[in-house]
Amino acid sequence: MIDSHCHLDHEQLFENINDIILNSKNAGIEKLLTICTTKESFKKILKIIKIDEIIYGTFGIHPHETGGNILNKDEIIKSINENKKIIGVGETGLDFYYTNSDKESQIKSFENHILASLDLNIPLIVHSRSAEKDTYEILKNYSNKGNLKILMHCFTGSIEFAEKLMTLNTYFSASGIITFKNSLELQSTFNEIPLDRLLIETDSPYLAPVPMRGNKNVPFYIKYTLEKLSEIKNIDKKKLDIITTSNFNNLFYK
Asked: Fewer Cβ close by (within 10 Å): the C or N end of the chain?
């Protein structure tokens, strides 16, 4: 298994990082991708990726943080090029559900991250909430400018949104949300997404899956998301594990 999206820099996880790594390995996790959301989080991520060989990182500014943190393309590229274990751009995207940052700054930041991703030829980790139309239109506008590699993190969008994104050669990451009782529509959407487009994640310390819902989420809980996704796709869990692991490696290393 590979946890394609976690936040090991958050104090809830960082204070127990050695136990988390050990438990992750014991659960069969091969890689942990810890995701950057601010400049300050990146400083911590650079330290975390040195702790163990299974940990990799990204660099980017979360849409909630773009009010005072708009980076230009060159700044993003420089930060990523300085370390080989930084393998993705993001978490970036659009979130119009909250008003932490204004729409204009989010869009500008998103576009700068896309440009950096294209120049670096590495995946773009996209957050999208209450912004399906704008997210798709922006990604579509840049998709013909190079080999844009898109990963929709913690995907909770509509089937229509997923179908549009699939025309852009997008990957979709399933989180613990698919295990929730009220996620029937999302489960139906993931049933329609092809196997070769699927990844799994925890988004820990958030969104602990059933049966651990209500607890702090940790990377080794990803097994519950894998189990639920295997039920949705009607495929053996071990086979799905091989597929999602291969998809991660195809996205990040080809």
From this structure: C
